[in-house]
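hey so u asked for the seq, here:
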Amino acid sequence: MSQREWVEKDYYAELGVSKSATADEIRKAYRKLASDNHPDKNPGNKAAEEKFKRVGEANSVIGDPAKRKEYDEFRAQVSSGGFGGFAPPGGGRYTTTGGDFDIGDLFGGAAGAGGAGGAGGFSDLFGGLFNQGGGRGGGAGAGRGRAQRPQGGQDVETALTLSFREAALGETVQIRLSSASPCLTCHGSGARPGTSPKVCGTCHGAGVTQRTQGAFGFAEPCTDCGGTGSKIDDPCPDCAGSGVTDRARTINVKVPAGVQDGQRIRLSGQGEAGFRGAPSGDLYVTVTVQKDAVFDRDGADLLVDLPVSYPELVRGGQVSVPTLTGRVTVKIPAGSRDGQILRVRGRGIARKSGTGDLKVTLRVATPPAGMAEAELAAYDEALRAAGFDPRSGWAGSA
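ran it, structure tokens below
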């Protein structure tokens, strides 16, 4: 997500929270909206699908403390007109009270690997004006802006539903997508097999040309090659020279153990293909975890409610309890109470930060309503004979 995309997007409004919302309020708002607009709940509803994507994007920015800080400061600078000056010579970064940001990225000209930047970017726009970015002397290369950055592919959002156990243990799941992918015929080059793109003779591969107007020089995208720096004389018949075709593909998603409901998994380079071999976008998979009839969780701890009888609480005993990977015997101490939690170390959910515990909560099961009156009377009599008074020591008995 580039900073220039932040200018027109109000992620707080998208999630329905204020700019002063706490991290917990943002998290709750996102989970509710993601759940309400989940594709599984709204099959065929394009509006809900788009809303699901937008709230996921919003949460990825303001749900991350570092990105939220950068987002807030960037939008504050834009709204206050804080970009009024020129880029510093030799660089494109300004310093704000909260850190650095790249002014070149705002205009699409942030430096990439090897110093390549986009045509029409800040430095390209003013490079000719201050005679920066060109070689010495005249000629075709004098004052030429940097090469056009290839148009990368778009990010893709999708959803994945897992059972509680799959999410807790981790799973490799196959998902099927239909999106822009590298052309299989030309392998993304855009040229017919057996041929290759040629360097544009007009801009000599730079992707930009210089236009002089009076004492000023301006860089603009090359009209002959569309700013790509190359031309294709014999385009691929299947992709018409774009290097991209729409097709269905199957992707293996490795879900890490312990993934939580609403968490997003990023698969680098698995989004839409870029134009003529440019880098692909990323794939973001939002995980929905189904409820389980037996288990719940608290972070890495696995939670289980264990039904027991009253005699088992009083006398104690041993009970077999399920875990994610089998069963374990739990010892109930004599004299236990309803709601008491027994802990079994290391039998919870395994994550990178360590394996949690199994927490077993004792829950007294109520005898059936049809239990014989004589049996209940005998039980009550036995308690009285033993001197048991349920209200002994109770402050309200006086």
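The CA atoms of residues 62 and 306 lie 40 Å apart. The first helix runs from residue 11 to 15.
lmk if thats what u needed
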